[in-house]
Specification:
single chain, 230 residues, alpha+beta, 3 helices
């Protein structure tokens, strides 16, 4: 067998492998249907954040300028809003919403931790703030809560749920987080008041995505399934 023939065979084998990888990365749908009882569904895969469903809005794909990995503070415009609002990741779990029509005013998602398990406070302009409980594991093996105490990547994967409460602590909804699910890297869904819009849903999801990223940066044996951008 000549050198040229061997090279040609190698080239076609490379094309075959690349085709297989492309097929393995394919997703079934650009938007997720999620739990039918949830009022909102959002997900992140390959750095793209998508608000899949919300009562008062349209599905929205949010593209980062750069990366939202730990240590960066990107500007993330809304495709649907044509720059009407943007998000910035200030720290793991901490997101600021800037609205073009209300310059100088900001809404925020602010984290706190209970024994390394994150809680979120949703601070909204002229509307009551919302708080989440820590997220307890309901599926998968690992820590009992979504927590920075995870040691292996397997400890992070799974499904977590927690209540959403108003300022005085009354339960008014729920929040579910799925990590390394079959359809996306991170899926966030739940029941929130109807006056929570796409920007706050995206900010809440980004806060949880950034916390997942922080945890995965600090555990051993990290592996992710490949996904195609929506």
């Amino acid at each position: 067998m000549t050198w040229f023939t061997k090279s040609l065979i190698g080239f076609y084998m490379l094309l075959f492998v690349l085709a297989l990888l492309s097929c393995s990365c394919a997703r079934r749908s650009g938007f997720l249907s999620g739990d039918p009882q949830a009022t909102f569904v959002a997900h992140e895969a390959n750095g793209v954040l998508v608000v899949d469903r919300i009562p008062q809005g349209q599905p929205t794909s949010v593209q980062p300028k750069g990366t939202w990995r730990l240590g960066r503070a990107p500007y993330i415009p809304s495709e649907a809003g044509a720059g009407d609002w943007s998000l910035s990741l200030d720290a793991p779990g901490e997101v600021t919403i800037a609205r073009a029509r209300r310059q100088g005013t900001y809404e925020r998602v602010v984290p706190s931790w209970d024994d390394n398990a994150i809680r979120l406070t949703l601070e909204r302009n002229e509307r009551p703030l919302l708080r989440t409980d820590v997220l307890a594991r309901v599926a998968g093996a690992g820590t009992s809560h979504f927590s920075r105490l995870a040691v292996l990547s397997l400890d992070v994967r799974g499904t977590y749920e927690g209540d959403v409460r108003d300022r005085v602590g009354t339960r008014i909804g729920w929040l579910r987080l799925r990590v390394d699910a079959s359809d996306a890297h991170v899926v966030c869904e739940g029941v929130l008041p109807p006056d929570v819009d796409e920007a706050m849903v995206a900010a809440t999801t980004l806060a949880l995505v950034s916390e997942v990223d922080w945890i995965e940066d600090h555990v051993r044996d990290v592996s992710r399934r490949p996904f195609e951008r929506p």
